[in-house]
Each structure stands twice: as C-alpha cells, then as structure tokens.
Amino acid sequence: MAKIKVKKNKKQNNVEESSSKSSKEENEVVLPPVRMSDDPTPKQVKWINRQRVLVFAARGINHRHRHLMEDLKRIMPHHKSEAKMERTKNLYVVNEISEMKNCNKCILFEGRKMRDLYLWLSNIPNGPSAKFLVENIYTMGELKMTGNCLKGSRPLLSFDPQFTKDPHYSLLKELLIQIFGVPKHHPKSQPFFDHVYTFMILDNRIWFRNYQILSEDGGLAEIGPRFVLNPVKIFSGSFGGATLWENAKYISPAKLRQAYNKKAANKYERRIEKKVMNEATRPETGYPDIEGPDFFKGDPLKKAEDVLLEEEMKQENDSTADEGENEIQTKSKPFSMKKIKSRPDKTIRRKQLKAKSKTISDQIKKRKKVIKKKVLKK
C-alpha cells in the first residue's frame, strides 16, 4: 500500500511541473534571431523558381548596342554572361551554349551592317522564340535620368491591357514575364521591389521603360534604358522551327534606306525639269497690259477707273459677239455644239518643253553610264 501511494505522489508532481512549464512558456516573449555582421549569410532554402537568363551577343554590334546589353545585365541579377559568338556559327549552337551554362532562357543580340540591331528572346530548349528589331535605343549613360534603384532589387512588371487581346501578344507577355521577372529568394537579388518595368504597345511595337518607385502614392522617376521592340516573327522552337506568327507590316531597315536614297537621287532631275518648265512658261514681258512708262504718270485713281471701264466695255462686246455667233449657228445647225477654241501658242510651248525635258533626261542617263563605267574600270 505504501508503494502505491508513492507512485501516485510522483504522478501528481509531474502534472504540476508540466502546468508550470506551460504557464512560463505563455509568459515568455520570443525575440527574433540576431546575426552578427561578421558571420556569413545563411543560404536561402526557398529558391524554387530557378530561372537563369543567358545574355550575350554575336559579333557585328556597335558600341551603343554593347552599352544597351550591359545596361540590361545591370538590371537583371539572375543573368549569366558569355563571350561574343562568331557570325559563321548557326543559331542552334546557342541552345548548347545555354545548356552548358545551366540557363533555361536566352537573350541574344544580333547586329547587321554595324547599324541595325536584332534581339532574340528564347525559351530553351523547346521554344518558343521571338525575333525583334530594336529601335530608338537610349542607354543609361545617354539619358542621365534622376531615377535610381538598388542594384539587385526585384522589379514589378507592368503590361499594356492590349497584351491580353491578341494571341501573339499574350505569348510574348508570358515570355517577357519569365525572362525579365527576377525569381524570389535568388542569391544575387534583394528581397524588395523599388522599380517597375513597363511594356506598352503603340504603333504595333513594344515600348520598354524602367521607372523608380518614389512613394506609395505612385510617384515615379525614370531610370533607363529606353528601347522599342518591333516584332518580326515568332517561332515554335528555340531559334528556329515553324513560324507561329509573322508581322505583315514589318519593313526591313535596308529597304527603307534604299527607298530614301532613290528619293534623294531624283532630286537633281526634278530640279532641272522645274527650270525647264519655268523657262518655257515665262512671259515675254512683265506687264503685258502696260504699253510704256507713261502709264504710271498722272492720277492713279483716274487711270484705274479708265482701265476698269475699258475692261467692262470689252466684256460687253465679247458677250454680244458670242450671242450673235450662237444665233447664226442655231439657224444653220439647230443641234450643233460650240466649237472649242484652239490655242496654238500653248501647244507650241508644250512641245518645246517636252523636247527640252527629253534632251535633259538623255544627258543625265549618259552621265550615269559614264560614271558606272569609270567605277567598274577602277
């Protein structure tokens, strides 16, 4: 009996201790963990969205295109860089390069004639991919805007509502979100938002702007860079495959320059033709109605009245003569039409003008042939 009593007392003591511990835990305030500045930063475990973007260029870009590429690298902490690719290589090699760098997205800058810049956005290795012509390039160094943001911070992505209306724009929207969106808990990124990327559609082009968030009310200040993407084609695969969409309104910059040069070449011929026209249509005398300098002597008001009276008399005589001719024609030929008066002076001038213009055009053609022969000989 004594042993049983002892066991019961032990059980009662255990219950009392557990109740006291729970009351103490309720009263305690747990402070947040503190890390010393010298200690190494702990690794993030929640980095699930492992998007890595390969940003590089092919040979043939100029200095402004290179500065734009560096600006994009600066605002994308999840990028990886690579040396310039040779132009002789096929674009399918980019898939292998990105796989070697463990990247699943790619931005490729491709230059033409050291003037035009084309941008490829691709999802590796299965696609889709899109090709753009980059226009109106303004780098951060050129703009010198007041906006500023912390390096490595995550951006908010703002899209035009027109992206949801057309299917090809919705596909491009998803591609832009996956490429320009910085993943959460990325090792090189900061865990807050302090700038916005805006993608607006205007004139069948995508306009890119980068703004700093100044306040919660919506105050913004532009940072840069600026550029406009003119979509050319969307492919089903990565850097190739079947064309899902093609821009019918796209005109290559080489064709635009060619048309501009043709217009400039025709300026000389038009100027000579205008000179010939002026010479052919120029009147022989400056004032055909004035006989001599005596016209300007005396009262100008009286002479003006006399001139008006003479013009009225001439108009009355002409009208009476026309009525008499019409009566004669109706008596002889009741249903005959009026004869059109011919003007031999103007017809002669037109013939002279045509002959002069032909001679000038022949001379211009001969000059062009001579210049081409000289160039070929050289």
Word description of this protein:
The protein has eight helices and eleven strands. The radius of gyration is 42 Å and the shape is elongated. The relative contact order is 0.09. The longest helix has 34 residues, at 344-377. It has helices spanning 2-27, 63-75, 93-100, 140-143, 167-180, 253-281, 300-332, 344-377; strands at 53-57, 79-81, 105-112, 116-123, 129-138, 153-159, 190-202, 205-213, 220-222, 226-237, 240-246. With 378 residues, it is α+β, with helices and mostly antiparallel strands. Residues 51-240 form the Brix domain. One of its GO terms (molecular function) is rRNA binding.
N-end to C-end Cα span: 128 Å
- Helix/sheet category: alpha+beta
Beta fraction: 15-25%
Low-confidence stretches: 1-8, 333-341
Average pLDDT metric: 82
Helicity, in percent?
A: 40-55%
Shape: elongated
Q: Report the order of strands and helices.
A: HEHEHEEEHEHEEEEEHHH
Radius of gyration: 42 Å
* Major sheet summary line: 11 strands, mixed
Give the number of helices.
Answer: 8
The beta-strand count equals: 11
Topology:
Layout: H1 2-27, E1 53-57, H2 63-75, E2 79-81, H3 93-100, E3 105-112, E4 116-123, E5 129-138, H4 140-143, E6 153-159, H5 167-180, E7 190-202, E8 205-213, E9 220-222, E10 226-237, E11 240-246, H6 253-281, H7 300-332, H8 344-377
Parallel strand pairs: 1-2, 1-3, 6-7
Antiparallel strand pairs: 3-4, 4-5, 5-10, 7-8, 8-9, 8-10, 10-11
Helix pairs in contact: 6-8
Keywords: Nucleus, Ribosome biogenesis
Function: Required for biogenesis of the 60S ribosomal subunit.
Subcellular location: Nucleus, Nucleolus
